[in-house]
Amino acid sequence: IIAYLNPDLGYLQIASKINGNWQYESLEHITSPCQFELTSFDDPYILEFKKVDEGYILKETYRKNGNWYSDIIEEFDYSRQILSLTLDSQDQPHILARNSPYCIYYTRKANDWHIDQFHTGSNHSNIILDHYDRPSFVDISSDKVRFYSKRPSGWDYEVVGHVVSYSFYMENSDWNCGLKLANDGTMWISYPAFSSLLEDSIKVISYDGFIPHTITEVFTERQKEFNHEFAIRYDNPVLVYPENTLGKSFFSFLSGMWN
Q1: How far apart are alpha carbons 155 and 172 in whole angstroms?
Q2: In angstroms, rounded to a whole number, what is the distance separating the alpha carbons of residues 139 and 122?
Q3: Is 139:148 a contact under the CB 8 Å cutoff?
Q4: How many angstroms separate the CA atoms of 178 and 128, rounded?
Q5: How far apart are CA 158 and CA 141, in angstroms?
Q6: What 8-state DSSP symbol labels residue 22?
Q7: Which of 24, 26, 66, 216 could form a disulfide with 258 if both were Cys (CB 3.0 to 4.6 A apart)?
């Protein structure tokens, strides 16, 4: 199933491949960039941040039992950046947004939305859920890499790493960090760890909730954009990152346990 904004029509289309044939559904009321997930029943759940005459709205649209539903989550006067969306084991949404310098977390319990707002750094990972549907994410604030988790008393964080030469990092503050959960419960974290006039690095660590362990650090020649992709395969990390060597640009791929 693919959700995309059709550039010719100007609204969202859902493409589903059934018995080898593509079928399309049009959602003409969705005209803005959105985030998309599938429920446990393979039904689309769509999150849209949209400008309206009165300001902005955050809206959910989802399919259930063959029917489409839309609800406004929140209305506000200022823009927000939607960082991440995930669904828990009960198909309830967990949303991470940003209104600098604050992070906003949304989740729905029964029919009520719960919203937390707290101060965070400028760089965030995706939000993930552990095996008990507890949310976590990673951010970078000053030179600290912080692992945030939701507890009964509220949000708390632990420092799991540091960024060396932070002033160089701030020149590339759009660099991303990653957070993934392995089947064995281990958290895997990737982040830009070092930056200088000549080279940059990405560090990959594992975190069991007690002690962070550095698994590898990858160095490349300095470049303006150093975003990377991070995934888990067979409980081991997979890292894809850009290289720039001798004037040539390409992507490198690392997988498995590194020594």
Answers
A1: 27
A2: 7
A3: yes
A4: 10
A5: 12
A6: E
A7: 216
- Nearest 5°: CA angle at 142, between 95 and 213? 75
Cα–Cα dist 4/251, whole Å: 26
Q: Which residues, in sequence order, are bridge partners of residue 84?
A: 96
- Tokens at 154, concatenated: 């509220």
Instruction: Determine the 3-state secondary structure of 235 from DSSP.
Output: coil
Helix (H) or strand (E) holding 41: none
Distances (CA, A) of 35 to 15, 29, 89, 113: 15, 15, 18, 18
Distance CA 13, CA 31 (A): 10
Under DSSP, is residue 210 helix (H, G, I), strand (E, B) or coil?
Answer: coil
Helix (H) / strand (E) element for 166: namely helix 166-170
Q: Are 188 and 237 in contact (CB under 8 A)?
A: yes
Listed residue (79, 108, 95) closest to 37, CA to CA: 95
CA gap 69, 61 in Å, rounded: 6
Contact 127, 148 (CB under 8 A): no
CB 138 within 8 A of CB 84: no
d(CA 155, CA 146): 12
Residues 45/28, Cβ–Cβ less than 8 Å: no
Question: Does the pLDDT of residue 137 top 60, yes or no?
Answer: yes
* 34-38, strands of its sheet edge to edge: 34-38, 44-52, 55-64, 67-76
CA dihedral 107, 113, 119, 124 (to 10 degrees): 30
Res 218 pLDDT > 70:
no
pLDDT-derived band at 197 (thresholds 50, 70, 90) equals low
pTM: 0.81
